[in-house]
Design brief:
Shape: globular
Structural class: alpha/beta
CATH architecture of the largest domain: 3-Layer(aba) Sandwich
Distance between the termini: 74 Å
Number of strands: 10
Helix content: 40-55%
Number of helices: 11
Strand content: 15-25%
CATH topology of the largest domain: D-Maltodextrin-Binding Protein, domain 2
Radius of gyration: 23 Å
CATH superfamily of the largest domain: Bordetella uptake gene, domain 1
Length: about 325
């Protein structure tokens, strides 16, 4: 009996040791790079992640945020490329990772890293200043069908990015020759908004957080949003493209990226962390205030979604004459 119990104890200890060996946990601070400067939407989202993760005890080590704008996002990705297989390095997934690769600005795309999760979706809006003669989205479409280059359309921060695609895709579906559009890139959505209100720009395309304050103050009118369903809250009055008879939508998304080659155990660890963050009431409230679409998808589903988005985005960029 004693021999049997001793054998059983050894077996249980071996199983426990095996389970412990299989579970990955951080052993050093987490470096989380942001491909934008402090204060913007990307930065705010990562700082909310850090706050919730550390205050709720979801991570074993502190998260160090490093703002690394520039290089079409490549500067922020450099630490991931320099530390293959190391799950202590994270960065932000935006659809710029897709568009910048398609138009030839960077040599890498999502397949060169490990997508860990997508955290929320975001949609492109189309706005004009309050005094604009453009009455609504139907009026905008008719003007551009008659003369595609007649109106200046502002985007941030570069031609061919997800905001450019987000306005071009529905206009293409409406019958506009999108290759002839007059699209003006600005360094930020705030800069394009200033030019719109000042009358130096006819139309502005941007994601939802950038239009809320000026719309509520009555300085701009938001004509359409590229979502499948109407937004809630402040943007509830804005029609989708489909509601005005244009059978199109375009969603970009944001998530979390890790270096190529990290272990399944590390992926599972971060899956648990980010799943818990997206279920946190503080996160849900934050996302809703930005008029983003809250959701969580894990590593496998995120990769599949990025593959689909890459194909759709490449098609639009080919029509714009920007695909390499």
């Amino acid at each position: 009996m004693r021999k049997t119990l001793a054998t059983l104890s050894i077996a249980l200890l071996a199983l426990a040791g095996s389970a412990a060996a299989q579970e990955w946990r951080p052993t050093q601070p987490i470096v989380y790079t942001v491909p934008a400067g402090p204060g913007g939407a990307l930065d705010q989202a990562v700082r909310m992640i850090k706050s919730i993760a550390e205050r709720r005890g979801l991570v074993d080590k502190p998260i160090l945020i490093e703002n690394k704008p520039g290089g079409a996002g490549r500067v922020a990705l450099a630490p991931l490329e320099q530390n293959p297989g190391n799950p202590h390095y994270l960065s932000v997934i935006t659809y710029s990772l897709l568009t910048n690769h398609i138009i030839g600005q960077i040599p890498t795309t999502y397949t060169d890293y490990t997508p860990l999760a997508m955290l929320f979706g975001e949609y492109t809006t189309v706005s004009v200043r309050t005094e604009s003669p453009i009455k609504d989205a139907q009026d905008l479409v008719q003007r551009l069908k008659q003369n595609p280059s007649s109106l200046s359309i502002g985007v941030a921060t570069s031609l061919g990015n997800h905001i450019h695609v987000g306005v071009a895709k529905p206009l293409k579906a409406a019958g506009v020759d999108i290759a002839r559009l007059t699209v003006v890139p600005f360094k930020s959505s705030q800069e394009s908004l200033t030019n719109l209100i000042g009358g130096h720009l006819d139309v502005m395309a941007s994601t939802t957080p950038n239009v809320l304050a000026q719309m509520q103050q009555g300085r701009i009118r938001v004509l359409a949003i590229a979502s499948n369903q109407r937004a809630k809250g402040a943007l509830a009055s804005v029609p989708t493209w489909r509601e005005i008879g244009v059978d199109s939508s375009y969603e970009s998304a944001q998530g979390v990226l890790a270096p190529k080659g990290i272990s399944r155990e590390a992926i599972a660890y971060w899956d648990r962390v980010f799943r818990a963050i997206t279920n946190d009431p503080e996160w849900v409230e934050f996302v809703q205030k930005q008029q983003w679409d809250p959701r969580f998808t894990g590593a496998a589903e995120s990769s599949a979604g990025l593959e689909k988005a890459y194909r759709e985005t490449r098609e639009v960029l080919q029509d714009l004459g920007l695909s390499k």
